[in-house]
What does this fold into?
Amino acid sequence: MKSQKEDCLLAIYRSQTRNRKVTKITDIAVRLNVSRKNLKEIIKKLSRDGLVHLDGSGEITLTQNGIKSARDLFRKHQLLEVFFTDVLSVKKEAHEQAHIIEHTLSGKAADKLDNFLNKPRFCPTGNPIPSRNSKVVPLTKINSGNEVEVVFAATLDTNCLNRLNAIGIVPRERIKIIRKIEHGPILLNIKGSEIALGSEICENIFVEKI
Amino acid sequence: MSCNSTRHKNNGIKDDSAGLVVLVGNPNTGKSCLFNQLTGMGALVSNYAGTTVDILEGKSKINGKLVRVVDLPGVYALGSSSDDEKVTTDYVNTQNPSVIVNVVDAKLLERNLFLTLQLLELKKPMVVALNFYEELEDKGISIDCNKLSKLLGVPVVPIDALRGAGIPALAKSIDSVRQGKIKPRRTKELWHSNNATIKSRGKSSKLDPATALAQKRHSQAAKIAQKVLLQTVPKKNFGDYLDRFTTEPISGTIVMILLMGVLLFGLLSLGSYLSTLLGKLFELFVTTPLTPWINSLHNTLLETIINWSLQGINAGIQIALPYVFLFYLALGILEDSGYLPRMAYLLDRIMHKFGLHGQAILPMMLGFGCSVPAVMSTRTLQNKRDRLMTSILICLIPCSARNIIILGAVSKFLGVGYALLLYAIILFFILITGYILGRLLPGESTGLIMELSEYRIPSLKNVLKKTWMRVNDFIIMAFPLIIIGSAFLGILKLYGTLDYIILLLTPIITGWLMLPAVAGITLIFGLLRKELALELLFVLGGSSMLLSFMTPLQIFIFALVVALYVPCIGTIAALKHEFSWKTSLLISISTIILAIVVGGLVSRIFLAFGILS
It folds into this structure.
């Protein structure tokens, strides 16, 4: 049951970081190979745990706690993948094995594994591994003067996303908050240029303090 | 076309030249400035992203050979996230340019290289022009151009587009590339970038493909920038402090209000001073010397035409020139300093109340000059809804022609206080319209994504050149119309036709708006150009003493109606060009109704409270 819940959480996380669309039950049902009825139950449970937010029209969004849990899980998965690929040299089974063990690996064991692997920054497929105890928050929660690393942008609008991609708001990019207006736009330093971003966009850009 | 020169200029240029050179680069990197250097033409140059929103074409002799040079709207990437980006991307993809000149802001090399890498993937002959190179060196940083050229596989030439340095070297490179003497080489760096393109098409990435590709390209750009930048310690300069002061919410708002106050006060006081001065000069040097000659003609028709035309010109010079000149001078300084994007940033929160965001401020500011380029510059907005809504509001914003009427009639004859009251009423209706549209139009605003360009001391030469170009456009468009309109009215009056037309308009003009019937005719002429309405009113009145045939209340209502009713014919055409006939007509008709309803109501309210009567 726990692993089902976690798989579902991870699927929502992936769907949101990957497609940056509103996640609906149908989007993840395919991935998980679970009946829709079961899935609904699981999501309701996740919602009760305060990990996801389910609105009336069936749109699922992760809460801050949800993002944290999903990232912890994702980190375990990636560390295990590195372990299976680099240490045990079972590249083909790496994903399968990691997928099973990720649910039972304790936080402490994951940290030890991280140390053992010499704190890898990328998983075998080339994606960044989140660092330990990282707090991922929307950009709006960061005070001015701080430097942050972009985790992902969850905007719904493709034009907006393409523009963000072009000016340099992409995962792992470091940006600095110069100034902000309360409930208003935020001034950022991105690659040396000063960019103003509206608060509605910043709410959907998730970052990690450095 | 109206008072702007950023429209298509490719009419009449045939494809008989030796090649097509296109200027592509990030916004505000000085493409239009380089375009002017290469072609000797007058594209508008300012210090904010999105000055150029259309394709501009000219001819240039490069190393003795004639080529077509095309200036394209600035983009951060090739794609379609806004209409101006679409214009550039479509042009580069469909017109098969013989050389792409990628204009790069040397101070923001890393960010700019993102587009450079994307352009290189097109495998077209290309040259990189490093603009603002001297400004970079002033900061104690330099770029190893040879190395950059090696890494990118195309020539890299440092230039200073404003002062013209490096242009001959750039021309030489363009020519060599065009003739195929220098071919783009595939370097290791590009192979990585290209490889990323292929990889991201696969399923290996956990990110969506577009983002994964962008990420890889950015990291490639960062690597290249790191290799060629020779020192990267940013120094604080005066601009940084000014930036801070003008974007901090409290000090920034104070500066903004003061600045707008100074602007309005300057226009009101200096404008009326200049207006009186020009009127006296005209009488002294034109009217007085010519009168004996006109009287000696002994031909009633000719006399009427010349007399009325002269009065038209007099009115134009007295009313239009001073205010238009001063406004564009002020706008030019604001544009070139880089202040406008800061204003958009500060007003972003307030704009949300109307379902828009701060970026809409830039087109709206342009709207105080002329609605036509303002409507076109809404292309920088990222969605159709925001574009349409901003355009509708622009139609209500008093453009320079409407300001002329407010300043030249209300402020001059009734006092500054009433001019301010009129502005307040117009502002009220803009806000109401914005509020209603924000709820009426489907969809949601995407939100502000805007680059704040660095503060720069405006170049006197560029500001004066821009002011001259804009005023010149104004004169070329306005004066023939003023003269023809005045002469035409003179003839109508001579043969008594005027009275019939007046009779037709009486119910609305006299009955509802309580204006003198002749005002109705000038309102129709106002469709051609807004300020024509007032100028012809002066002509019809026979003197510049407006108060002799209109009551103060009538002057006020006249100005209010002119300010609100249909934007001029130029704007109607621009709306059709950017949207559709249907939208354009709908906006026109709604504004006419709004003007008539509001005009009649305000005049009754004023009467009831004894204001201006």
The radius of gyration of chain B is 27 Å.
